[in-house]
Write a structure and sequence with these properties.
Strands 4-3-2-5-6-7 form a six-stranded mixed sheet, sandwiched between helices. A two-stranded parallel ribbon has the order 1-8. The protein is α/β, with parallel strands linked by helices. It has four helices and eight strands; from the N terminus they run βαβαβββαβββα. The longest helix has 14 residues. Helices cover 30% and strands 37% of the residues. It is globular, with a radius of gyration of 15 Å. It has a single domain, classed as Rossmann fold (3-Layer(aba) Sandwich).
C-alpha cells in the first residue's frame, strides 16, 4: 500500500484553507474522534466557538477496514441549531454516513454539514467542504511522529 506522510505544517495550511472555504454559519462543532480532534480544536479557536464536542467511531483496526462502523459517545446538542462535523478524511464515507445517521436520528431538527481535510473520490459521500483529494493512505503526523520516538 502506497502511503503519504502528512506533516504538521501541511495540516496548518490546509486547516486555514478549509476555514476559508466554509461559507456557513454554525454554532457547534463535532469532531469525529480520533482523526478529527485536532481539526475540531483548531476550528473552535479560529471561529471562537466553545461548543466543540467529539463523537467516537471505530471503522478501522490499524489500516484494515471493519465491516461495520461503530458510533458511540453521542454529544448532547439540545441547544444547537447548525452543527459542523469535522474529520481528517472521508475515505470510504462509511464513518461520515453512520455519524450523520445517528445524529439525524437523535436530533432531527438540527442542521448538519461536514468538512474534512481529505476526501477520496471513491467515497460514498462527499463532504460539504474539503481541501485535498486523497489518492493513497495518508499517514497523519499525529499518528506517526510520536511513534517514531518510541
Amino acid at each position: 500500500m502506497e502511503k503519504r506522510y502528512y506533516p504538521y505544517e501541511d495540516f496548518l495550511a490546509d486547516t486555514n484553507a478549509l476555514a476559508q472555504k466554509i461559507d456557513w454559519e454554525f454554532d457547534t462543532i463535532i469532531a469525529i474522534a480520533r482523526g478529527g480532534l485536532s481539526l475540531g480544536h483548531l476550528f473552535g479557536e479560529y471561529y471562537n466557538i466553545r461548543e466543540v464536542y467529539s463523537i467516537n467511531t471505530i471503522g478501522y483496526e490499524d489500516t484494515v477496514k471493519l465491516e461495520q462502523v461503530k458510533v458511540f459517545n453521542v454529544p448532547e446538542l439540545s441547544g444547537a441549531k447548525n452543527v459542523l462535523i469535522v474529520d481528517d478524511i472521508v475515505d470510504s464515507g462509511d464513518t461520515m454516513i453512520e455519524v450523520l445517521k445517528v445524529l439525524h436520528q437523535a436530533y432531527p431538527t438540527v442542521n448538519f454539514k461536514t468538512a474534512s481535510l481529505f476526501y477520496k473520490k471513491s467515497a460514498k459521500i462527499v463532504p460539504n467542504w474539503y481541501v485535498q483529494e486523497a489518492d493513497r493512505w495518508i499517514e497523519f503526523f499525529w499518528s506517526v511522529d510520536l511513534n517514531r520516538k518510541k
